[in-house]
Amino acid sequence: MPKKTNFSELQTERYKFKPQLPSVLSKGAPFIQIKQGAATSSQGNQEQIKEMFPNTYGMALAGFKKGANSAARKKKITVGVVLSGGQAPGGHNVIAGLFDGLKKANKKNVLIGFIGGPSGIIRDECKILEKDLLHEYRNTGGFDCIQSGRTKIETIEHLLAAKATFQGEKIDALVIIGGDDSNTNAAVIAEFAKKENIPVSVIGVPKTIDGDLKNDFIEASFGFDTATKIYSELAGNICRDANSAQKYWHFIRLMGRSASHITLEVGFKTQPNVVLIGEEVKEKNKTLAQVIDDLAEIVIARAQNGKNFGVILVPEGLIEFIPEFKELINALNDILSQDSAEFSSAVLSDKDKKEIASSKLPPHLSALLNSLPNHIAMELLLDRDPHGNVVVSQIETEKLLIGMLKKRLAELKKEGKFDGKFAANYHFFGYEGRCGIPSNFDANYSYALGYSAAILALNNLSGYMASVRNLTKPASQWTCGGIPITMLLHLERRKGEDKPVIKKALVDLNDKPFKAFERMRKSWAQNEDYIFPGPIQYFGPKSIVDMTTKTLQYEQN
Fold this sequence. Notes:
Elements: H1 9-14, E1 32-39, H2 46-52, E2 60-66, H3 70-74, E3 78-84, H4 91-105, E4 110-114, H5 119-123, E5 126-128, H6 131-135, E6 148-149, H7 156-169, E7 173-178, H8 180-195, E8 201-206, H9 224-245, E9 249-254, H10 261-270, E10 274-275, H11 278-283, H12 288-304, E11 310-315, H13 318-321, H14 323-338, H15 340-343, H16 350-360, H17 363-371, H18 374-380, H19 397-414, E12 424-429, H20 440-458, E13 464-469, E14 479-484, E15 489-494, E16 497-502, H21 512-526, H22 542-545, H23 550-556
Parallel strand pairs: 3-4, 3-6, 3-7, 7-8, 8-13, 9-11, 9-12, 10-11
Antiparallel strand pairs: 1-2, 2-14, 4-5, 13-14, 15-16
Helix pairs in contact: 4-20, 9-10, 12-19, 14-17, 16-17
């Protein structure tokens, strides 16, 4: 138990939780052998990716199986770990699993934490992670043990600085805990290390509450389960409030920059009246006006039954899924990348920036930009994140929808097609879900990922991402291994040029989860089928405390 005393009763009890390891990991690295699988190829652009990653492309899948591995016990190594990107519940347990996996193999193994994300590697700012320190962070939310950051190690200057740090700290392996961009960065560093004959293994761990880092080998990213349970408690509370007051439409925007996984999962858990799925909007090539008409149809139908209230879930990245907006955002990304100095002038007003951007756009996109409310247009012109992406969390899509829907309903009322009432409230749930105390599932899953990363490091596997599968089964039955990061790559346009990145996993409209949603949503729209899941449960029946996400259940059942 930690010596600090400023903890809640719940947090004190959570320190006592012992994550359950998959059976294959239970005896530690000296009793785990690497089982080589099939060779791999990238998700797309195979020839170009192979040319960019000649030393790490095409590596075989790596599975774990029980068996003696004496080399793992004899070997003393020093491993560096870094948290990269936004916070997600379970990050501390990845570090704890990594630490325990290393110490189980050899008590002399050392774990070093780089402070403040990848920039800590560049600056060589780190600390040794000891048992007593980690006791304070086991089964807790947040990334505050070593903090995080969004720096990318990709320029030759950064890579050479990382090389100097590896050599100075005598690092044998680096574990990067992050999302798709961060693990792309891990692939870049692994390739550089092999090219330069730097004896460092680079290993990734899949982290993102957005849920868009997934495939056949990464069934879920840690943090998604906890975050969606937190959002579902809040959304369920609003559903109950809506049904109690029966006078407001609540628009809830949920985190998820590039995919609608969170929105779909919260939809399953709470069954609100409308769940907008960005991928469906894109597939059906809908304009913003058509999205508004769809919402108006549901509002009118409920009003005809005397129901002037409801709850609507909106994915954070919806605006990017509307084809006309996606085209506009891509064009603005290129403009802001090429002419950043022109837009950064302190003397420019919002009106000036909008006019400059408009003048550089083709006519149809210029017209679209000028048709938007001024505050939405300016949100599209905000500074980009370090990866060149628009910061969609700052675009208040729910307010845009409310404003346009209110205008459309007023038009329909004049035409005699709507005689109900429409009053709306708006909410955005984002940061609320990033640092919650991890659910039992995430505590177990993230710990197993960290432990698996230790096994990969002890076996000198580089350019791999830890993989834990079979997640709807009890933790003891999970299967573990590693997958080459290059198999997840393809080319995307970033900052005006093609870049290798991990392909984001979007909601598949032909997969079981979306098909299940399609069967239910008509009833949700017409009725009050609301579910009120309440807070995360850490103690009680296994059916409650160990349950996985609805998405996983649909995918694997």
